[in-house]
Design a protein that fits this description.
The protein starts with a strand and ends with a helix. Helix 29 packs antiparallel against helix 30 and helix 37 packs antiparallel against helix 38. It is about 70% helix and about 5% strand. A 5-stranded parallel sheet has the order 5-6-7-4-8, sandwiched between helices. Strands 1-2-3 form a 3-stranded antiparallel sheet. It is built from 43 helices and 12 strands. The radius of gyration is 36 Å and the shape is elongated.
């Protein structure tokens, strides 16, 4: 026991709720003012922001006493913080400091207000003989004694606000700080107390606390183990201090040993000081738990069985077998007791150590049958809710439980958004639950839950999460010998691999699903797998195989009269024909898909097909038609509230505007797309939008912004392990570095992209990246290497019959020959490129190559022919609405007029270029 100045002493544990303050008989008037604060916490660290706020409140003052309510869960460090701050400001209270332990959660029972007032008045020199009997009179005398005194009063461990009311001074010269596990809402409402809820320490603060208590040399020697200790103690101050104290007193035990011991399980029993059982995390939790009524205790115990990070009242109602209203009331009581934490959005979080404590209580007080029933109720609620919500995301997909009623064809956008928000909020809980039911061996629940979350994960491109839960579902389906469930799991796993660019794994999963669908005589499933396989082959530029598979899928879908699926496969075929530069066939397929979409009233599908048509138009240089289709798709998606689709369409619309030199519009659209992607938590879409933003900034000459957006995109796409996206981001970055003249950096990034393209079998992407490499080498003056890259790209485009790519590679090769001084060879090569572009109706390729031919002919000394080619190129650019290329062509024309001696014409065109450049807002 320690004795303090002012005739007070304190014994027991200053955190766990067994604090005993002893008051001696009244001291003579000559005695100094009371100084009852317990010793400051040795090595106190962290909480700088709270300490600053506390100081600001005292500085502000006011007509009423400053009352501060410091609240938080057991072990969060309320008493330590209050005592530390009180010591920091003690010299500002010359009339003394009172410390009263209200014993709200002490084993000895809470102090009554009368008892607390008696202690305080004795400390304030009031003899026992003069103490009134009535509590109100005691409170009045207490306030009289404090009148006009500058005193600090610490009321520690309050049980509830009523215990505190009589202990509040009436004078503004005093400051009161109350610590409690309860929220003390009534104290805030009635007396204007300033509420401050303590949260867990930050990782840096927690590490500093461990270092201070265990010894900084110990933690410096084992930094990784110290960081692990912070994690395993879940950043709870009491747990950290106990663990660190055990390390400090056991020099033979390393920090890693302590972490290992805690990781073995039963952390609560190990987070204790042997000589003082009260100084333990579990003991602190016990005190709060014992104060609950039986109904609330049960709710707390069963909450410990939930493995997700947070819960909503509806889920808790299912867990408890109660209504959401009853669950909401119980959660409020648990929050008030400091045993759960409200985290916003009507959700609650159970601290990791409290969860472990609750699980321990459940193991002791609830039978396995009770626990199992609670988890099953929760799982069934999640399954039903997810299945119903999923039908609003993709009403056409066949689910495992096909008896569910589908929503309207085009659901109310607000209703769909509500279901999407639910999935987004519940995503971590759903994953944790699927892991839990799989571990419990509830096989059917496992595969049904995996199927229920598929649509959301697929929509938001949470591919890795989709893979994890479906692998668990596949294991469960195999255990249960359920071939239909195995089919669904294999098929969904294949789609997820495809979206990650993992084509080999995608085809393996698809083959397994295909065999099961044939075995089950499931023609619907067979067609779905064939279409997925076709799309997978599209990713590796194997267009002919993709078309063969797509035709098989189309035949089945027409046989079974599945109109929606027929339109989907027509879109797949359109993409295959696009890859082969067979734009007429591609248009026919996409147009057929569009007619079906309109016929069945599938607005979402109509927008998807319009996006596809826009790309076909773009491939043939019909920029205006492409813009029209894209804008129509955007209107539909906006009308039906398809935020994900809006993001996709806006990104392509931005790209179109960029291609034709409308950079300000492009910036506006891509920033809107980026805001949507971030708003709906679509990291893959965000990464893709950032690549577009980087490209636009590069075109505008804003290279610093281009690099910043490009590097952010690369970071996101690498974290997602999106190999296609990563290659695109690296390609884009290489172009930024090339424009800046940083050819080594450009070469490094383009080679990294090339390695990825080859590793995933993306031959079209490989050809494009070889073109990018050729441009780097061309600008760096390494013409031999530029020629080699262009020829490799040309050979690859021939192998996949990509005529658009052939034209582009020939154009690059012509520019290489031009810089090598091989003008005739450059001319012949450019003419070949022009013929190929003309054959497939690729207007953009014609524009670029006609312009290149103009430059070649100028170098050859044929200015009249050069001018004719430049004028033809400009006319095509004007027809396409491509202002960016029109400006470049006009610059070429100005040079040709100089060669012809037509200086005035050159000046007129130069002025025209300046005006157009200024109007576009781009750099010259």
């Amino acid at each position: 026991m320690t004795t303090y100045l002012g005739g007070a002493s304190i014994g027991g544990d200053s955190v766990s709720g067994d604090k005993i303050v002893h008051m001696s008989a009244a001291a003579p008037e000559a005695d100094p003012p009371p100084r009852q604060l317990p010793p400051d916490v040795p090595g106190f660290t962290g909480r700088r922001d709270i300490l600053d706020r506390l100081g600001s409140l005292v500085d502000a003052g006011g007509p009423a006493p400053v009352i501060i309510a410091l609240t938080g869960m057991p072990g969060i460090g309320k008493t330590a913080l209050a005592v530390h701050w009180a010591h920091l400001v003690s010299d500002r209270f010359p009339d003394g400091q009172l410390f009263i332990d209200l014993r709200g959660y002490s084993k000895r029972g809470a102090l009554t207000s009368r008892e607390a007032l008696g202690q305080a008045l004795r400390t304030l020199r009031v003899p026992d003989s003069r103490l009134p009997v009535d509590e109100d009179e005691l409170a009045a005398l207490y306030r009289s004694r404090l009148a006009n005194k500058r005193m600090l009063i610490v009321l520690d461990d309050a049980e509830d606000p009523r215990q505190v009311y009589p202990l509040l001074p009436g004078t503004s010269s005093c400051v009161v700080i109350v610590t409690a596990r309860l929220k003390l809402t009534a104290l805030v409402a009635r007396y204007g107390a300033r509420a401050m809820a303590l949260d867990l320490l930050s990782e840096a603060e927690a590490l500093d606390l461990v270092s201070e208590v265990a010894g900084r040399e110990r933690t410096r020697q084992e930094p990784d183990a110290a960081a692990a200790l912070v994690q395993i103690c879940a950043r709870l101050p009491l747990a950290l201090r106990v663990a660190a104290a055990n390390i400090a007193t056991r020099p033979q035990q390393s920090v890693a040993d302590t972490v290992h011991a805690l990781a073995e399980g039963d952390r609560l029993s190990k987070l204790a000081l042997g000589e003082d059982p009260g100084e333990a995390v579990g003991a602190a939790f016990d005190l709060s738990y014992r104060g609950l009524v039986p109904e609330t205790r049960r709710a707390f115990r069963l909450l410990g069985l939930v493995e997700g990070p947070h819960v909503a009242p509806e889920a808790v109602g299912a867990l408890l077998g109660a209504t959401p209203e009853a669950a909401r009331r119980l959660l409020y009581l648990l929050e008030t007791a400091g045993l759960v934490q409200a985290v916003g959005g009507g959700r609650y979080h159970l601290h990791e150590l409290l969860r472990e404590y609750a699980q321990g209580r459940a193991a002791e007080e609830d039978t396995p049958i009770v626990q199992s029933a609670a988890i099953k109720r929760l799982a069934m609620w999640y399954l039903t809710t997810a299945q119903q919500a999923g039908r609003f995301l993709d009403r056409y997909r066949r689910t495992i439980r096909q008896e569910l009623t589908a929503p309207p064809v085009n659901a109310d956008p607000a209703e769909r958004a509500r279901h999407l928000d639910w999935f987004a909020s519940e995503q971590p809980n759903l994953i944790a639950l699927i892991r839990q039911v799989a571990r419990l061996g509830w096989d059917q629940l496992t595969w049904e839950l995996a199927d229920a979350v598929y649509d959301f994960f697929e929509l938001r491109r949470h591919c890795h999460e989709n893979l994890e839960v479906h692998r668990l579902g596949l294991e469960a389906a195999r255990r249960g010998s359920d071939p239909l469930a195995c089919f669904f799991m294999h098929h969904h796993i294949s789609v997820s691999h495809r979206e990650l660019g993992q084509t080999e794994e995608a085809l393996q999963g698809a083959e397994a699903a295909l065999q099961l669908s044939i075995q089950l005589e499931d023609r619907y499933g067979e067609a779905a797998v064939l279409d997925n396989m076709a799309r997978t082959h599209l990713q590796v530029s194997d267009y002919r195989t993709a078309l063969d598979l797509g035709k098989q899928a189309l035949e089945i879908r027409r046989d079974i009269s599945d109109r929606h699926a027929e339109a989907t496969t027509l879109d797949t075929l359109a993409r295959g024909y696009q890859g082969l530069s067979k734009y007429t066939r591609a248009y026919e397929c996409a147009d057929g898909a569009l007619k079906i979409r309109k016929e069945i009233g599938d607005l979402r599908g109509e927008a998807e097909t319009l996006d596809n048509l826009a790309r076909i138009y773009y491939g043939t240089g019909r920029i205006k038609d492409s813009l029209t289709a894209t804008e129509k798709a955007l209107r539909i998606r906006s009308d039906i509230g398809d935020r994900h689709g809006q993001g996709e369409t806006l990104a392509f619309l931005a790209y179109l505007h960029m291609r034709i030199g409308r950079h300000e519009q492009a910036c506006e659209h891509i920033e809107h797309a980026l805001a949507i992607r971030r708003g709906i938590a679509d990291p893959q879409g965000e990464g893709q939008a950032l690549v577009h933003l980087s490209t636009i900034c590069r075109r505008l000459g804003r290279y610093e912004s281009a690099l910043a957006a490009g590097l952010e995109a690369l970071d996101i796409l690498q974290q997602l392990r999106d190999r296609h996206g990563e290659a695109e981001a690296l390609d884009n970055l290489s172009r930024c570095y090339r424009r800046l003249g940083l050819y080594e950096r450009a070469r490094e990034d383009v080679n990294r992209a090339l390695t990825i393209r080859r590793s995933i079998g993306d031959r079209l992407g490989e050809a494009n990246t070889l073109n990018a490499l050729g441009l780097v080498e061309l600008h760096a003056g390494r013409l031999g290497r530029a020629r080699r890259a262009a020829k490799l790209s040309l050979r690859l485009c021939h192998s996949i019959d990509d005529k658009r790519g052939i034209a582009g590679s020939l154009d690059l090769l012509a520019k290489v020959y031009l810089d090598m001084g091989l003008y005739q060879k450059a001319r012949r090569t450019a003419e070949k490129a022009l013929n190929v572009a003309g054959d497939i109706g690729q207007r953009y390729g014609q524009i670029i190559t006609l312009s290149a031919l103009g430059e070649i002919l100028r170098r050859l000394g044929h200015p009249d022919e050069a001018l004719a080619h430049a004028r033809a190129a400009r006319e095509l650019a004007k027809q396409a609405g491509d202002l960016h290329e029109e400006i470049n062509i006009l610059r070429l024309q100005a040079k040709i007029h100089i060669d012809l001696g037509q200086v005035d014409e050159s000046r007129i065109i130069t002025a025209q270029v300046a005006n157009m450049t200024r109007d576009l807002g781009q750099l010259p």
